[in-house]
C-alpha cells in the first residue's frame, strides 16, 4: 500500500458528501450499462460506508442489466487538478495531477417501494443549507407522475478501494508553494487535510 491509499472512513464519507455524482457500471457489461447517478451513503460502526442509496430512470440501461439484483462498480471522483511546475515554483520539477477517487464494489438491489423516500432524501441533502430549501411539495401536481418514471435502489457495499493523491509525497517547500499558487480552494482544502502534519492545519 502506498501513502496515497492511506485513508479513513471519514475521508470516504466526506468525499461522497462533497462529490455525490458517481459512475455506476454493471459488472460484466459494456459501456452502455454505465451511468452517472447521484448517491447518498449509509454508515455503520466506526463511520464505515455500508450502503449507497439512489434512484434512476426506469429507462436507464442499468435497470435491465441489474434488475432485480446485481453487482456493480461505483466510482466517485473527488477534486482533481493539474499541478504545473509553476505552481511548485521550480522548473526542474515535473508536472503531475492531484486527485481523489473512491471505488466501491456493490450488490445493487432495486427497491421500488422506497422511491419516494430516496428522492426526498436526496433533495433534502442537496438543498440543505439554502435559505429557502426546495421540497417536492413545490411540484406536488406532477410528483406522482414523475415517481412512476423512476426506481429507487440500495447498493450494499462489498469492498472499498480509494486513492487520495494529494501531495503527500512532495517535499515541504513544493507542497507549500502549490498550496499558495494553485488557486483551487477545494483541491487545496483536501491537500491540507491529507498533509495536516506538515501544514499545521
TrEMBL record:
Signal peptide: none annotated. It comes from the Bacteria. It comes from Stakelama saccharophila. This is FMN-binding negative transcriptional regulator. PANTHER family: PROTEASE SYNTHASE AND SPORULATION PROTEIN PAI 2 (PTHR35802). It holds the Pfam family FMN_bind_2.
Amino acid at each position: 500500500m502506498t501513502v496515497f491509499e492511506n485513508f479513513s472512513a471519514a475521508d470516504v464519507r466526506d468525499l461522497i458528501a462533497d462529490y455525490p455524482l458517481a459512475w455506476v457500471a454493471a459488472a460484466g457489461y459494456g459501456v452502455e450499462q454505465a451511468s452517472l447517478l447521484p448517491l447518498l451513503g449509509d454508515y455503520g460502526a466506526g463511520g464505515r460506508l455500508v450502503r449507497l442509496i439512489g434512484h434512476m430512470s426506469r429507462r436507464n440501461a442499468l435497470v435491465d442489466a441489474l434488475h432485480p439484483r446485481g453487482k456493480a462498480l461505483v466510482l466517485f471522483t473527488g477534486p482533481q487538478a493539474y499541478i504545473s511546475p509553476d505552481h511548485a515554483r521550480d522548473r526542474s520539477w515535473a508536472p503531475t495531477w492531484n486527485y481523489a477517487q473512491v471505488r466501491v464494489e456493490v450488490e445493487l438491489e432495486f427497491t421500488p417501494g422506497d422511491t419516494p423516500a430516496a428522492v426526498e432524501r436526496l433533495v433534502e441533502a442537496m438543498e440543505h443549507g439554502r435559505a429557502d430549501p426546495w421540497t417536492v411539495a413545490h411540484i406536488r401536481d406532477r410528483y406522482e407522475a414523475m415517481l412512476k418514471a423512476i426506481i429507487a435502489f440500495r447498493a450494499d457495499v462489498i469492498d472499498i478501494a480509494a486513492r487520495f493523491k494529494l501531495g503527500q509525497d512532495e517535499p515541504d517547500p513544493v507542497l507549500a508553494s502549490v498550496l499558495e499558487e494553485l488557486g483551487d480552494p477545494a483541491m487545496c482544502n483536501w491537500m491540507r487535510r491529507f498533509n495536516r502534519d506538515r501544514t499545521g492545519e
